[in-house]
Fold each of these.
Amino acid sequence: MDLYFSPLACSLATRISLYEAGAGAAARFLRVDTKARRVADGSGTDFGTINPLGQVPVLRTDAGDLITENAAILQHVAERLPEAGLAPVGGLARSRLQQWLSFIGTELHKAVFSMLFDPEIPEAAKAVVRRKAQPRLAVLDQHLRGRVFLLDGFSVADAYLVTVLNWCRVTAVSLDDYPALLGYYKRMLERPAVARAVAEERAIYAELHPEARLPPAPRA
Amino acid sequence: MDLYFSPLACSLATRISLYEAGAGAAARFLRVDTKARRVADGSGTDFGTINPLGQVPVLRTDAGDLITENAAILQHVAERLPEAGLAPVGGLARSRLQQWLSFIGTELHKAVFSMLFDPEIPEAAKAVVRRKAQPRLAVLDQHLRGRVFLLDGFSVADAYLVTVLNWCRVTAVSLDDYPALLGYYKRMLERPAVARAVAEERAIYAELHPEARLPPAPRA
C-alpha cells in the first residue's frame, strides 16, 4: 500500500500503526508538499488529482483504491494486519474504538487543533477554541486514570491520539492540568514504534523547515 | 436501546436510521435539554452523569453500555439491525462508509457547522469557516453526480449527511452552487422514514422554541 503523508501531520498515526505492527515495509511512504499540492517524489504529481481537498493522509490499498479520512484508513490498516491486534474486530470493543477515533477526529483534531493551526482564524476565535479544549482534555484525563491505553491494548486510536497530542506544544495547549493524559502521552512516546515514527518525521520536518524550532518531545 | 437526543441535532441521524430499518419501536427516545444539561423526562437526571461534555447523541445499548459519537452509534445501530442493510459489513465498502462518516463528522459537522452555531465564535472567523465549506461541499457534489446515495444503497452515512444538510438554511450556507448535492438532499427528505423523523423533530423543536422561525424544508 501507499501512504501519502506530510511530516507530523495526522498521517503520522498510520505510520505509527504500521511500525507497531512491524509492517513498515508493507507501505511506501510518499511525502506530499501540502502547500504546493504536489507529491514530493520527483514526479511532480498534482496531489489534487489524488485528494481534491489536498489533505493527508490518503492511503492507496494493495488493490489500488484510494481511501481518505484517518478513521477509515486506520481501521483499514488494522483489518489488513489482523495479527497485530491494532483494533477489536467486533462488539462493544469495536464501538469503543470507533467512539475514540471519532472523538479524537471531531472534538480534538477538527474542533481544536485545525482551528489553532489555521493562520486565517482570528486570535479571538482561537481563544474560544482553547477554552473548549479544556473539557475535552478532561474527558481523556478521566478515562486514562488507571489505564495504559484507550482500550485494553494498544490500538490505532492510541496512534491517532499521540499524533494529535504532539500538536499541543506548538499550539500552546497545556496538558499540565491533566496528569493522567500527560503521563499517557509520555509513555506512548517511549514505545519503540512510536519513538521511531516520531523521530523520523521530526527529522523530515526539520530538514524541510530549518527555520522552525520544534519544541523537544517531553520525557517520561 | 435508549437514544438521548435533542431535536434537529445530530442525534436525528440515529432516529432516521432506526425509522429506515422499521425499528423505531426498538428505541426509547429521551430528550435532553442541552442548555440545562438535564434529561427532559421528568426525572431531572443530570445529563452530565451520562455524557460529561453534555452532547447528544448518547446511545444506551440493550446491554446497558453507553456509546457516544455519531460514527460509533450509527455503526452500532446498523450492526444491531443487520437485516436493514444500513451499513456494508466488510471490505472496501465498509471503508467507504467509515470514510464518509468521518468526512461528514470532521469536515462538515465540526469544521463548519459547530463553528457557525457557536455564538462565542466571532463573525470574522465564521466568514473563514464559510469559505472553507465550499471545497467540502464541492467534494460531495462531485461524488453525488449520477448517484442516488453516498454508497450503493441507503446507509447510516446518508442519515448523517441529511441531518447535517438540514443545518444549511439556519447557518446561511447555500447549496445553490451544488446541484447534485441539493438534488440529493431534496430526494432524501422525500424518503418516508426521513420525512417522518424530520417532521417529528421539527414539531418538538417548534414547541420548545416558539420564538424560532424554522425555515421551511426544501421540496424536490
Note: The mean pLDDT of chain A is 96.
Amino acid sequence: MKSFFSIIIFLLGIVNPVFLNGQDFKQELVIKSIYKNALGSRKAYNDLRYLCKNTKGRISGSPQAAEAVEFTYQLMKQMNLDSVWLQPVMVKNWKRGKNEKASIHSSIMGIIEVPVLSLGGSVGTGEKGITAGIVEVKSFEELEALGKKKIKNKIVFFNKAMDPTLSSTFKAYSKTAFQRTRGAAEAAKYGAVAVVVRSLTIVNSDFPHTGIMFYEEGIPEIPAVVISTNGANLLNNWLKKDPGLQFYFENHCELWPEVLSYNVIGEIRGRERPDEIITIGGHLDSWDNSEGAHDDGGGCMQSIDVLRIFNELDIEPKRTVRAVMFMDEEYAQRGGQKYAEEAARKNEKHYFALESDAGVLTPRGFGFSLADEKRLQNLLSLNVYFKPYKTNLFKEGGWGVDIYPLRHICPILIGYIPDDSRYFNYHHSANDTFEKINHREMQMGTAAIASLVYLIDYFDF
Amino acid sequence: MKSFFSIIIFLLGIVNPVFLNGQDFKQELVIKSIYKNALGSRKAYNDLRYLCKNTKGRISGSPQAAEAVEFTYQLMKQMNLDSVWLQPVMVKNWKRGKNEKASIHSSIMGIIEVPVLSLGGSVGTGEKGITAGIVEVKSFEELEALGKKKIKNKIVFFNKAMDPTLSSTFKAYSKTAFQRTRGAAEAAKYGAVAVVVRSLTIVNSDFPHTGIMFYEEGIPEIPAVVISTNGANLLNNWLKKDPGLQFYFENHCELWPEVLSYNVIGEIRGRERPDEIITIGGHLDSWDNSEGAHDDGGGCMQSIDVLRIFNELDIEPKRTVRAVMFMDEEYAQRGGQKYAEEAARKNEKHYFALESDAGVLTPRGFGFSLADEKRLQNLLSLNVYFKPYKTNLFKEGGWGVDIYPLRHICPILIGYIPDDSRYFNYHHSANDTFEKINHREMQMGTAAIASLVYLIDYFDF
C-alpha cells in the first residue's frame, strides 16, 4: 500500500520541495473538485449557445454588442456576486453595409463570383464598385519591385498563404498578417485603387476571414477586402491563364459616430485582501460576420464560470476576483484601454490578470509575462498540479490584447493556451459557430483557469 | 548572439547530459524536416478519405474488409518499399443482418421508436423479435439484488452512464464497459430474455455505439443491443412514469463460417540490422456501422505515412521498419495474434512495436511498456525532442490491442496518445466519419510517430 507521502509525490508528478507539505494534498483535492464541478456543469456551455445564437455579429457599436452587454450583465446579476457593474467606454462604430460582392471577369474563362468580405476599417467602393486589372504579390518587396508603373490604377492581390508546415499556427498567422493589416496602405503608395487579400486560414475553404486593417496618415484610403482561400486559389489559377483579367468588387463600409458601450464586470470580494485584484476575462465583441464562439464568446463564458465554480464550491479567495467582459477587442481595443485607465485613476492594486482569447479548444497550459525571475520560476513550477489534466505546458511569455494595457500597474499577465490546430479554421469567419465548441474541451479549460487562479491566490507569490 | 551550445540547450528544453553533443542538433533538424514533410503532405489524409468512403463498414469477414486489404496492399505496392505482402489469417465472420429496430410501448405515453444496434457477437431475436417488460439497472450488484424473481423473462436495461467529470475519458469508458461486454451473460443467469445497453459515449446523441460482447459457456445466449444515449435517457424517463411498459426489438445477427483474410504489411529493410524489426501499425477493420475514420483508419494511414516520410526524406533506418494493417481488432483480434505467432515461428527479432489506435486527434505523447527500468527512463527522456511540438507527454504504460500478443518476443510496446476529449463522440458509431478528421491533428501525430521511430532506432536503446 502506498504511503501518504508517496501518494503526494504521485499526485504532484514531479518532486518539488516547495510543495511537499500537508497543504499541497489539500490543494490537489480542491483542484480535483474544481475539475469535477466544471466538467459536470453545462451552464457556461449553454450560456455560450445563447450568446452565439442571439447576439451573433456583436461588433463594437452594433445593437448585437449592446444585447451581449445586457445578457452578460443579467447573467452575472443572477449569480449572487458581490458586485456587478457596467464600465462605460466610447467605442468606434464601423459598419460593413450590405451587398458586398466580387467577381472575376476573363475574356478567356468567363465570369465567376468569388466570396469576399471587407476588412475591418475599410472604406467603401461607392455604389458602382471598382473594376480594374489585378496584380498578384506575396510581399511588400514584390510590390516595390513592380513599382508605380505596374501597380497604378490596379487592384493588388496579396496572396501569401499561411504556412501549414510550421509547428505553431499562431506563428504561421503572424508571418502573413502584414498583408491584411498594412497591405492597403502599402499598395496605395504605388497608386493601387484597391486590395484583395487572401484569408488567413490554413484550410482551403469558401469562408472569407476578416480582421482589422490600418490606413496611413497622408496615404489615400483604398477599399480592402479578403477573399476565401478557395477564391484566392481560383484567382491565382485564372491569372496564370489570363493575366489581363478584370476584378470587380463593391463594398459599402462606413465609419459612423462613436457610441457609448460597456465593459461588463462581476466580482467576488476578497476575504483577506479585498483591495488586491485578480482580473480574468475575454472580449465580448466579435466580428460582424461571426457568432464569435471561439473568438471570444468562449473565453467570456469561461471567465464568468470561474466565479460560478468558486461560489458553488465555497472557495473564498483571499483577493478580489473579477470576471471582465472587455468590449471592442477586434476594432480599437477601447475596452481594455478603459479598464486600465480606470484602474490607474482609482489607484487599484492589481495582483495578476489572465485572458482567454485563443479559442476554447483542448487545453495545453498557460504563458506568463512578468519581470521578476524568481516569481516566474515559482509560477512555472505550479504546472505539477496540472499534469493529471494534461494542461502542464507552462511557459514564459503570455498575455491577451485586452489585459496588455494593464501591464504598467499589474505585475503578472497570463495568457491561457489551448490547442492551436483548429483555431484558424474558425477565426474571424462565419465558420466560428457554437457547433464548433466541444463542451469537454471548453470546460477542461475553465477548470484549468479556475485552478490556476485559486493556486496563485493561495500561495501568495 | 546565442552560442551554438545554448541553442542546443534551448532546443532540447531541458538540460540532459545524455543528449548534449553535436549529434543532437542533427537529430533536431531531422525531426524538424519530418514535421515539415508530414504537415505539408495531404497523401495520408486523402488515402484515409478513400478508405472511409469506399470501404465503410469493413468488419472482419466482410467484402468491405477485403476491399480495404486490396486498397492498402496496392497503396504500399506503389510506394517503392522493400517488400509488401499479405499475411493470411482466418477470421470470424459475424453479420448483423438487416432490419434492426426497437420501440417502447407504454399504455400511458404511447409508442416511440428508439435507435438501437446489435452488439458485436450478439445472437438474433428471430423473425418476430422480442417483446417484454424491462428492468433498469446500473450494476451487476443491482442485478443480483433483484434476483431471478424480478429478472426472469424480462429485458434488462443496463443504464450506467460514462462519468463526464473524470479527467480521462478512457477511464470513464473502462468503468462502464462491463455492461456492454458481460451484461448479456450476467443477465441471462437470472433468466433475462435480452439486454439493452446504454451507449458508451459522454455526449447526448442519437447514435448507438456498438462494440464487442461475450457470452459465457453454459449460460443461455440472449440477444444484446445498445441504445443511443438520448434513447436511454428517454427510456429511463418513461420507465419512471410507467414501470410496466413493454420494450420491443428485433435483430438478425448470425455467425457465418470463418473466412480467409489478411494482415497487410509493408517494410523498409534496415540498413545495418535488417533482422531487427520495428513494427508500427493500426487495425484495418472497423465496426460494420462505421467509416472507421478515427477507429482506426487514421492509425493505419499514419503508419503507412511514416514509411512514405522516411523514403521521401532519405531516412534509412538501421533496423527494418514495418507498417502493419492488422485485421480483426474489433471482433476477435485474430490479426494481432497471427502476426505474433508468425514472428515467433520465424524466430524474428523484434526491437519495439508501436500502435496508433486511440483516434487521430491532436497529439499528447506516448506510453511505454517495458521491463527494463533504465531503458524506460532513457525512452522517457526522449520527450525533450517533442516539446516544441507539444507532444511531450511520455509516460510509463502503453500498448495497443494488436501489438499486445507480441509482448513475449518484443521487449518494448508503445501506445500513441492523442487528446481524448472527443474520441468517444465517434468511437464505434456511425458518427466516426472522415469529416471528423482534422488534417493537421492527424499529421502532427504522424510526424510524432515517425520522429519517435527515427530516434529510438538512432539511439540504439
Note: The first strand of chain A starts at residue 83 and ends at 95.
